[in-house]
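Students often ask why we bother encoding 3D structure as a string. The short answer is that it lets us treat folding as translation between two languages. Here is a chain of 101 residues written in the first language.
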Amino acid sequence: PKSFSKALSTYRKNKERKYFRKRAGIEPVIGHLKEDHRLSRNYYKGITGDEINVMLAAAGFNFKRMMNKWKSSFWLFLEKIIVFLNRQLRPIRDSIILQTI
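And here it is in the second language, the structure alphabet:
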């Protein structure tokens, strides 16, 4: 960011700092979109095509984030089901083992 002029008030300087920090947080996301989600080259025609390309890339990015969150939740859920089934089936397993002896 550019340096602040001396004519700016403290309020205005703080407001611009906040804006620069927000932009600095967004730029890595845009970089990932360009690299990982094929946003670097637009294959659609015109301004409408640009808008479509950005929306599809953002949707893909959000979908990937959502799937990663679901994946961790799914494994936790599956682990809890396995523990529950083991507890429920342990008496049956033990009785079968005792009958064979």
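Translate back mentally: The chain has two helices and no strands. Keep this in mind for the problem set.
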